[in-house]
Amino acid sequence: DSECQFVTKDKCALEPLESCSLAPYRYSSQDASCLRNHKGLWLNSGLVECLTAEDGVNVVQEIHTSLGHDGTLDCKQLDIVVSVAEYLVEVDSVASISGFLLPTVHNDLREPSELTYDNHYIQRDPSEGKDDSFCFVHERITAKVAQFFKVQPLSIKAAPSSAIAIHFESTGPYESITHRIKGLVEDYGDNIDVFKELIQNADDAGATVVKFLISWKTFGQNNLLTREMAAWQGPALYAYNNKTFSESDLKNICKVAGQTKLTDYTKIGRFGVGFCATYHLTDVPSFVTKNQLLIFDPHLKYLGERVQPTKPGMQIDFVKENTGLQNHYSDQLAPYDGVFNCNTTNPEPNGFEGTLFRFPFRQPGVVSDICNDTFTKGSRSIESLKRSLIESASTILLFLQNVNSIELLEQNDESATSSIFKLERKGETKGPFQKSFCLPIGRDFSQPPTSQIERITSVSGKNRKTTLWVVSSALGQRNSLEQAQSYNNEDGLIPLTEVAVKVCKEDYGVIPLNTEGGLSCFLPLPFGCSLDFHVNGFFDITKDRRLLRENLWNDALISDSLVLAVLELLQYLANNPSDMNSTRGNEFLHSYYQLFPTGEPKRGVVDSVRPKLSTAFEKELKETKKTIVWTKSYGGRWMAPSEVVVLGHDFLLAPFKDNQRELICNLLVSQNISIIKVPSRLWYLFKGFTFQEFCVFFLDNISCFDTAIRDTMTIFILQHLETFKDRYSWLNDMIASASVIPTEPKGELAKATHLVDSSATDIASLFAIEEGRFAADNYMKNRQVVVALRSLGMARLRLKDEDVLERAHSISNVNVDTAISRSRLLVHYLLEYHFKVYRATYSKPAKRLSESDKKLAASLSEVVFLPVMKCPNSEFTCWRETDAIFMKSFDMFPSSEQKLVFTHSFILDGTVPHSLTYLLTFKRNPNLQEILNHLKAIISWWRNEKHGLHQAKEVLKFLDEITKEIYSYLALETFGPESDAASLRIVKNKDAFTLMSTELKEVPFIWQESDFYNVHCVFFEEKYKCPPYLVTLGRLSLSTAELFKKLGVDDIISQKKLLLTLQAIKTDFMEISLPREILDFTIYCSKKLYMYKENANLFLPDVDGIMRNKESLMYSDQQIQTLFARQECFKSLEETSSSKRQYRLHPKISFETAQDLGIQSPLEALLSNYRDNSVISAIGYGQHEDLCDRLSNILRNYHADTSIFKEFIQNADDAGASEIVFILDQRNFKDKTLFDPCHSNWKKLQHVPSLLVFNNKMFTDEDITGIAQLGKGTKDNSPETIGRFGIGFNIAYHVTD
Fold first, then answer.
1. Cα–Cα dist 935/929, whole Å
2. Of 21, 229, 1000, 1012, which has the maximum CB count within 10 A?
3. Is the pTM value of this prediction over 0.70?
4. Is residue 669 a contact partner of residue 675, using CB atoms and an 8 Å limit?
């Protein structure tokens, strides 16, 4: 405002540039007050609303123009330029960078590309000032602003570098380079081998020398590219080779798991992870080659601005930028200087002629996203690192194309260096080594197989060792070649394999040595194989080199190229042998044939190569024309495998031994048959001279040999026959069809099929030695020979059917003792040997036997050779006897049925096993009539003999078994096979039951208590036993019990049967006193007859135990016994004649029982001598009506009133009485001496009132008879009597009983 000038409106805007004043080059409301007012006016007039970044850039350009060539910025101008630069950074106006100028320390304006800013982290002495060789931005320009405008920092300007990209295929959308490398390192696991990867890279590069240095030296940490690089100035592994990197090598090393070598046939590492393996050791690997220093920083935290997320590595031309590097970063170059002649201080114009890698060891405390392993001096990880190279030292150079020298050194922290070990490869003549087989160039795979000797020397301290190897190489010509050509160079597949074996070379030849096989893909792989040589090839292996992939390429390589390489090795060794006719020659062949890759892998070795190689080698061996096998025929020569023979595979197995094989081989060599001697495991590879060919010659001329020679060779063949019986049936037929076996006792030759095994006692015992059926002793003493003879038909477990029949017939032609023994042995043989196969089904043989065995069984059934069962006890006179010792099975029942038939049939002897009866034909299933006759015969015999046999326990036991068997049979016939209670209620075979009932009626057929009983004497549940009158059945089968019920056996004895039983006892004993047990039984019966009224003919024991009719018995108790003693009248009862005599009842029968049974008391007995019962013997009311009921019916029609007196008056008048008196008697009378003093009713009548009726006329006999009539008197024939139509005396029953 103070200047008050007019300006054009294109230099004005209402709003400033973010409070940034551009006056006097641009104005805004903050610069001119007139713009703060009248905003509408200004907007309508076309004034812009706000200044822009473009205005700021333009102002800076205008300032630059105003300064001229030598002008400098004043303070105002400097403020404007700085303010605009900061504004552009703040709004991130990238588009404004182009053309923008920045102030310098000299207060002028320049392009950012001409400037630098001081970002160096090292504190310098201020007096040193800034480096005049660089133009620095103004101090007011911050590092942030400088970086935005891409001003290079001093650290880069002093030593310019280019960023290097590391290429990798991401496994996810945001996978970092460190994550990718970490995955590769982890894939290696414990198998990671940095040395091999670096050697492989060196060999690919064409290097001949490789050296490694483990250095414990540390370097300065001041003059470094960044402060963070100080962590990697310590101990490190150096790797040197004498070849420089090519451009393609540089590209390849920048690939994570890259495979840029695939199409380059001369590169062996096309399938490895290569350089990435070094990240196992370090996070910042680097190397020097030619004029380049390359450092990688995948973490992006050690190289600062020199790396970018997409380019985590840097490359510096250390020759060109040497001055800057020495001035500012001398400590960064120091670790390379002087290592393996690398000069970074004063480098040659072309730099370093070789490649030097430096891998600073990861130290404790370093945080890594790739690997946490650290490596410190003396640690296990360092020792493992050394060991990984030392252990593979013997084979690591074998298959490399270029590298001929490898050395491992170690440097302490004071720069003293020592060699740990060194390997060197030279040619056969100890001169420089040149690989005779070079990897093909282009697609020319026509190079023939070659072999050469490699001399590898290892030096470790003072120890020096040299090993000779034969290495044979071959290109595939079939499958692998076709596959390699089919890929059109895309995968760089070469059908190449090599094999190597240790050898010792002497003046007279090369001898292979024992070699533990291994597997290489030009460098040893961490897994081996079970071959006796090393294998190398262009195998397809996993990235971590742990495994061979299972694919068609590897299969083709093994089955094609590797086979050719092995044959090449064998041919080379065969062409350079030692003296084959010497001991050394035998040693050579032993080691030589070990190289044939046949058979399965060694036990415990996982080998994916040998099985496939073995199969392919075996096939190729049959076709190859290479002369690789040695024969002694024709004076000794090498021949092709197809031209020779070996002893057949039979000769490999026992019982052949070396001396026998040697004998046979010498015999064949003498006839110029090209027989070779190779290890037995290789026999199957060649045409075999068969055992059959050898045996035909011998057996065709057996009769011409001396007996001893004949027996030796025959025994040998028989031994062989048993051992290999499954392999040559032709020999079985040959020997079996000829008489070649000498026999005892005279030595006649016989066929094996005629022989019987003398060691098989069960069969041999059937023959006598004189029959010429046993082989000579010297044959039978050899176990293998015996086995062979058995296989040829010598009987051991089974005779021929015709021999079996012959032996059966022979029993009738020998003495009795021999016959008995032979019969027993023949039966044993039939069951345990001949028919043994049917043992499990002997019960159903008819369905099981083969046709031939059925025929044999039928024939044997007709032969007299089986023993007849004799009576087991001389007492069994009912047993059917015969004088014959042997009979046909047709004529006998099995011993299992002896209890059913022995009285009428012959039975097989019980010593013969029952199972034979299922094989031969016997009489079976006797019919019901035969069984019943058999039972009655036994009963008859017992009835006649039992008095002499009742003490014989074996007889009783046998009868128990017999009857049980018979009853079971009868029950089965009656009810059928069902055994449940429901089925046993029904008689299924009524005819059979009717026959049984008829035949057994009145027959005592039930065996119980050691005797046979009728059904009426036997009961199921009767608790009391008194044989033979009452027998309780023991435990029976359900069917037998039901059968007995059907035949009349009751559960318990009825009162009627008890009465009959007592009568039977009387009949049996008459006037004899009963035995104690029978007496007790009669007493038991008296109790069981309680309340039984139909006991008129009842017999019970008296006091002497003699059975008496109850009418002649009287009972007594203690009171009566007293009367008997005092009263003579009672004594007279026992002294009367027999018809009137009364016997005292046995005292164990109670008087209550006696009274119930109708036994008289003594008084009644006494009175019975004076009374006449005839008057009441015929009561005319009929026996069908009860007496009391009759009286009751009469009285029902008459009243109990004065009519009673009228009846008595009438009766007195009818009797002719002139006087009648009625007296009511109220007296009591004594009750001690009554008719029945024990009866309480008599006593009661002595103490109740009574009616006495007196008349003066006595009763006549007719009156007594009439008074006993019920409802009928005797007056109907006397018209003078008035009461003839009355009920008479019976009316008295109205008042008394």
1. 10
2. 1012
3. no
4. yes
